[in-house]
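Final report, Chapter 2: Outcomes

The project's central promise was a pipeline that accepts a single protein chain and returns its three-dimensional structure in a standardized token representation, suitable for archiving and comparison. That pipeline is now operational. To close this chapter, we reproduce one record exactly as it appears in the project archive, with the input sequence first and the structure output second.
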Amino acid sequence: MPTKKMPMRDLIVLLPGIMGSVLQKDNKDLFALSWGAAWGALTSAGKSLQLMKLAQDDPNGGDLDDGITAPRLMNDAHLIPGFFKIDGYTHVSQFIRNSFDVVPGDVFDSTKPANYFEFPYDWRRDNRVAALRLKTLIDTRLPQWKERSGYDQAKVVLVGHSMGGLVSRYYLEKLDGWRDARALITFGTPYRGSVNALSFLANGYKKRFIDLTEVLRSFTSSYQLLPIYKVVKVGNEFRRIEELNIPGVDSARAAQARTEFHGAIQEAVESHQNDADYLKSYKIVPIVGTRQPTLQSAAFEGGTLTPNEIVPSENEEDQLLAEGDGTVPRLSATPIELSEEYRETYFAEHHASLQNNDSVLADLSNRLRQMQTNLSQFRGAA
């Protein structure tokens, strides 16, 4: 078994999911796995976290003038007191750097050519904002790396956990990132949405002394995580979220997220099917978490939304898919156009831990190694 670091010719970008980047306000930790942030939440009864509430957003990336920035990724598994456990990205980052001969770079410093970047972003905002920043990063750093390495065939490999896969997807399909990409590897990305997001908006999100209900409702990203398919049962019929008046859910924002974000991606995918260069470009590798109880749909009656684990289908056999990673349903972790391509790899793991699972990382390593080799040379015919 090889133990030597393998040369990495391509450029790798690691993108976290929602709540996977530290948020600072005026250069002080606001949402982070730091004592300062935790102490602020504890001593203010969670009021410090209310500062994360979005008053406005701009999909074109305009500055919100709220003093909030995302300087770095979250570290590995820590507990936010009274709130929740976060599995961060230290382990997967170290694994990549220990397995491959990469040059780590800084997304905020363009003076040093590099081919491994961790991409923090403001996960409250419209995912199109992060996608635009990702394009700027790659448009600058990939040419730098090609010149520094002397390998002019270098491409970008995006490794996205959860919502980080959606950011990557928009960049690849809508911002023409596919021209520079070799692969998109996703860990539990909700390509078709998550019922958890709907439940948080409709029923609130409160943990002990911390109530983030109104904060989450303000996030553009919360709406871009909603299921895009008919998921809410009213009477005997499943309906789309924006077709209903669900308390706590802004129907207009839900419709906008489905059409202007997810719909725009899907339209781009379909239009690209006639482009021969696109068809020879990047590949998507979905890594899917399974064997965990996972919300699949919801019932809406008497003004109350009740999530459940019933797949929104009249086909009884489809209920065999009533599982997932505890956050993202199995049926959502695969892009629509790959529904019958069978490219997925399945692991019995929770959503927050997929990117740190040793078996998942071994699979990631094998895939990255394969991308750095040319097997077409090993053939019988001349």
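Archive annotation: The first helix runs from residue 35 to 43.
This record, like all others produced under the grant, will remain available to the consortium after the project formally closes.
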